[in-house]
Amino acid sequence: MRKDELLLPQIRQENRKQLLRLGLAGxxxxxxxxxxxxxYAGVEGLFKxxxxxxxxxxxxxxxxxxxxxxxxxxxxxxKVQSLSVDLPITLALWxxxxxxxxxxxxxxDEVYFDSTASFIFLILVTRYFVHRIQQIANxxxxxxxxxxxxxxxxxxxxxxxxxxxxxxxxPGDWLLVHQDQxxxxxxxxxxxxxxxxxxxxxxxxxxxxxxxxxxxxAGTKLISKSASFQVTKIxxxxxxxxxxxxxxxxxxxxxxxxQLTDRLSQGLIAAVLLVACGYFLLNYQVNFQExxxxxxxxxxxxxxxxxAFGTPLAFAxxxxxxxxxxxxxxxxxxxxxxxxxxxxxxxKTGTVTRGQLHLVKTYPxxxxxxxxxLILNLEAQSQHPLAFAFRRAWPENHGSINFEELKxxxxxxxxxxxxxxxxxxxxxxxxxxxxxxxxxxxxxxxxIAYFYFADEVQPESKHVIEELQRRYExxxxxxxxxxxxxxxxxxxxxxxxxxxxxTSPHLKRDIVAAHPNSLMVGDGVNDxxxxxxxxxxxxxxxxxxxxxxxxxxxxxxxxINPLLDLVNISDQTYRTLVANLTxxxxxxxxxxxxxLAGFINPLIAAILMPISSLCILGITMxxxx
Length: 625
Known about the structure:
By secondary structure, the chain is an alpha+beta fold.
């Protein structure tokens, strides 16, 4: 069972507890406010005392049950020698409760059960609303959003098939997947041929042809009628699960803006408590009740809840909007870093271009069925783009060939032995100036056939680059020959002094490192070093899994259009953060002054404080729509 599934009962239980506290607080506060009407209407004597004692009785469950989260938060912050917003809330609650109870016993009129009850209820409402929004945003990272609950057929030991739900799958199981079902786990294909939509990982808009023995990944979708495979990895151990786990870990890290608001919140808490205590000590001898009222009103109204809620809420909604636009962002710090980006580096193949090679021509023009079978079997277990290009060119089943020895030679190609013949499928050392990628089929190091593949520029690349050039310096990076890169740069509107050709992974890294505040966009393993040198790295939809693990942002949509969304969402989030912080500072300054001046009493303060948090909520939701 996945970790997120194990946590679901705890999350649901905690949500129920919050709703119970909130519901009880709402019911009791409503009754207290109704019972306050006769008092404000002028009732006197025994009836007034009766209503006030009813206030006291109804208030007890509020302070001893509904307000427990405030006490827990205050205590936890004190244990780590920190100040949280729960501390002034707790002080305000208990100060008002004790003061009101003492006055009630002594027969004085100054009791604040109504205002304190409203204070508890409104804060609980605001917190629950914010908590649910953040919970929904965080749920966008759950594995279940990519792999829905399904039922499959499992091959039993006796050869029969039985039904199995996706949450019961174990490594080693043989599963039969039907058309349009999402593959629930990583595994190895057993069926001779299968068409699979692997766009989540490969970026291919068309289905890919997989042959027996090819690795398949959780989150991909079966297009053909049915296929069987053996499970190797499940849940968080799958390639998709590892990516989402990394996203969750990164999301927990605090960025500079969050740390800033944390420091401001703690400073404001300390300042409010010091000012309130100082004001009371200086004025209690002149007018004890008035000094107490104003100090209590200050503690309540100037509580930095708006500041504490605003930043995490803005980041949560920013991440949620990014996810809706097909962008998986590992850490909200990306929004902050995007503000400082000056240079954008774009990898060519698979990023600016489609990265989907197509067989354009062969020599000889006609390739025999025997040679096609040899090539397809040599590439059967390969995830290389050329392997899929061969499968797209010859989708029909050409039969199975058992090689005595089959291996992949990095940088060269595939090699297999049949009897006394050594067959090699080898990528040519270079590329033609026309932009073709050459591959040769050799028997015992003797070339017997040549194959040429071509790529093309993404339709939207030129428009996106033009938009980005209004704000950033754009460079094109590629390991291809200069003539090919130059042609691509020309099509995209990039000048001759803004592209680098024949770059190795280390050279890419050095180029990016020489430009501080840079954004690197790529798709291949050869971009990983450059990713690590960039302030922000983006893996496009066609990226290989290793690349996605190193990227700050993963695109789930094809092409580089998501870059514009990333820029826009980052701008919206930053503007919202600034607006929230400005409002919080202005509100606390003005409200604090009015409280000390006597224009805001504890009742009005109890109403204004949660209203300020609701204003922050409105500003945030309006800013990130």
